[in-house]
Design a protein that fits this description.
Layout lengths: L1 E2 L12 E5 L4 E8 L2 E9 L4 E6 L5 E5 L6 E4 L2
Antiparallel strand pairs: 1-2, 2-3, 3-4, 5-6, 6-7
Length: about 80
């Protein structure tokens, strides 16, 4: 899980980004204080094991399994 504070996706500021293993997706959780008020799923087609935000604002996803990959999401 990562909190997004990058510049590439301004609408995602202060949102939680979560990887879904079973759902094979990136999940964006919009919060208001400590409450989740909206959820958006972005299908990736791979089991997402880890999510990180790079210094330039790109989102990095690490996929699961022996053929695991690192995916970079940019605008």
């Amino acid at each position: 899980m990562a909190i997004y504070n990058g510049a590439q996706f301004p609408a995602w500021k202060r949102n939680l980004l979560v990887g879904a293993l079973a759902g094979q997706a990136l999940i964006r959780l919009v919060t208001s204080g400590a409450i989740v008020v909206a959820e958006e799923r972005y299908p990736i087609g791979y089991r997402v094991r880890d999510v990180a935000v790079g210094p330039g604002g790109a989102v990095y996803l690490r996929t699961d399994g022996p053929g695991g990959r690192i995916l970079k999401l940019t605008k």
